[in-house]
Amino acid sequence: MKAVYIEKFGGPEVLKYGDVPDPVAGAGEVVVDVHAASVNGADWKVRVGDYKQSTFPLGLGRDFSGIVSAAGAGADLKVGDAVFGVLDVGHEGAYAEKLAIKAAIIGKKPDRLSHIDAAALALTGLTALVAVEDTLKLQRGETILIQGGAGGVASFAIQLAKHIGARVITTTSTPNLDYVRSLGPDEVIDYKTQDFTKVVKDCDAVFETVGGDVAMKSFAVLKSGGRAAFIASGGKAPTPPRGDVASLRPAVGRTRRHMERVADLYQKGAIRPPEVKLYRLDQVAEAHRVSEGRHFRGKLVFQVR
Ligand SMILES: NC(=O)c1ccc[n+]([C@@H]2O[C@H](COP(=O)([O-])OP(=O)(O)OC[C@H]3O[C@@H](n4cnc5c(N)ncnc54)[C@H](OP(=O)(O)O)[C@@H]3O)[C@@H](O)[C@H]2O)c1
Q: Which residue is closest in CA terms to ligand 1's atom 35?
């Protein structure tokens, strides 16, 4: 099969597209013929060596949508099922024509949802659910600041938080204001012209998806007893500069329950897929340059078949 892989860490130039052996379904696993796979920030962090994997060639990519083409012993999905999901923690390799994965951690793709949109919603949806529902435990009537509204995870989180019944404030740059407004938040702050710490205060929760200075400054908008969740500041939550708030790092595991929740929210109309820019797998270097630039909106998705 064709796949994207690296043989050493480095810039987009180390990305290779070529032939690799087909995967085989072990016990409890299925082989999925990948129709679409998405680009996530983690992928270029893997490429540059941040995650310190030591085995080459190393495939890249974490989430996908496709059709089951083989099922191992005990797998509870069958050939022909349309599925979407995220590779198990520590596994990479969704930028490929096929992948093998534990059946128990993926979900059935709703018929109405395209493979492209399902791939765009898999890791972003999972991460937003774990952060907003499981970690921040956001409640109806609370106020949340979601940093980086135009990004994939934040665009899901904005819609999820509105569905929960929270008041939602978010940040973005001037060119993305209309897109982010279309996701339904109560207030959008243009971070190019306004300092969010001057206009936001007394939040119950912050969901921080940008990192760097934005993460540390976010503590200032919390009310006493507030909580903040961070997904772009490494594996640990930053240490807060004040003692009356909680700083949390969501533990994003993989479960079918979360994929089913993504599907259910889509079917209910609570979540719509993000804006998508399509690539072919052999355009991977270009897609990584855009992802690493961190100023696009929505998701970059590979149409594999
Ligand atoms: N399991 C996990 O822990 C997990 C899972 C998924 C993602 N992540 C991490 O979460 C982060 C977000 O990922 P993502 O895929 O949702 O988004 P992304 O594509 O990496 O985010 C890009 C977005 O950030 C916005 N942005 C950049 N600087 C900003 C600023 N100063 N203030 C507000 N917005 C700003 C950009 O919009 P503008 O052009 O408008 O600035 C852009 O839309 C990444 O670091 C990723 O690695 C972690």
A: 148
